[in-house]
Amino acid sequence: MLKALINKMKNIRFMICLLFLPFALSTSVNLASDLEVTGTLSCEGIEASSINTTGTISTSQDITTDQVETSSIILSELSLDEIYALSDTITINANLIINSPSSSESSFLETSWVLRDHHDFELGSHGWSHDKRNTCDGEDFFLGGHCAFSHEEVSKKFKLPPHNMVKISANYHMLDKWEGETAYMKADGKIVWTMTGTSHEQGADICGGKQPDAKFAVPVDVTIPHSGGILEVTFGSTLKGDPCNASYAIDDVMVYLR
Ligand SMILES: [Ca+2]
Ligand SMILES: [Ca+2]
Fold first, then answer.
1. Quick one: 136 and 84 in the same domain?
2. For this UniProt entry, which residues form the secretion signal (predicted)?
3. Ligand number, closest to the Cα atom of 249
4. Is 221 within a domain?
5. Ligand 2 center to residue 27 CA distance, Å?
6. Which residues touch 232 (CB under 8 Å, ≥6 apart)?
């Protein structure tokens, strides 16, 4: 009876330690060939290098495997070396409790950045202190820009959960006639990033007024120790004149924590 059952099964590579059958089976079953399960498999324990099933696998003891790919998994305990996202995001719809290892190894929180906020300004100003948005191509919007920001600062207070470090990244646009002025970003009132910009007559006119632009989409990427519950991020420039002649804009402001 067992031999007949095995002959019907294809396309799974694993050893079944104890396969639930209508009769008691006290020894292990080792399969050298593939096994495909399209229904439910119940047993007391599974050890495998790879498990593939379109149905359900349940076990009252341990499952040990090098790799599992599934759309849903329910566990009481999970031990992993690494987690990879099949899409861009890993979503956890529950409280996440992370215990530091007893050894000197770094914990998950100490080695991985968690994206807290991403402000792309496509649909609104995300609560920044000035809400004027612009776009160059009619599709990708940013905060500020032509006839909006020059000598004025723009800021936002981020309310943060417990953390030890923050990473702030953004894109900074220097539009139209910059003459060596300085762009800057502050974190909690302290300047943490600067860059100077100068427009050249032969430069490209990408956006804003008709003048060539100094720099477009300058990457900002700053990591600082930070543990407070509020982080104030401020952008500005040393431009003095009319924002219709020279201006700055920001886009894709992202705050990461760890
Ligand atoms: Ca944008
Ligand atoms: Ca321009």
1. no
2. 1-26
3. 1
4. yes
5. 77
6. 155, 156, 157, 158, 186, 187, 188, 189
Cα of 126 from ligand 2 centre, angstroms: 25
Domain encompassing residue 65? 1-91
Neighbours of ion ligand 1 (CB under 5 A): 120-121, 140, 251
Tell me if 12 is assigned to some domain. yes
d(CA 104, CA 139): 48
Following DSSP, what letter does each residue of 209-252 receive, concatenated?
SSSPPSEEEEEEEEEEE---SEEEEEEEE---S-TTTEEEEEEE
pLDDT in tens, 104-137: 445 555 568 899 999 999 999 999 999 999 999 9
Coil vs helix vs strand at 147: coil
Amino acid identity for residue 140 in this structure: D
pTM for the model stands at 0.61
Same domain for 85 and 124?
A: no
Displacement of CA 211 from its chain's centroid (Å): 37
Whether residues 152 and 210 fall in one domain? yes
Compute the distance from residue 217 Cα to the ligand 2 centre, in Å: 13
Neighbours of ion ligand 2 (CB under 5 A): 176, 205, 208, 211, 213
Judge whether 52 lies within some domain: yes
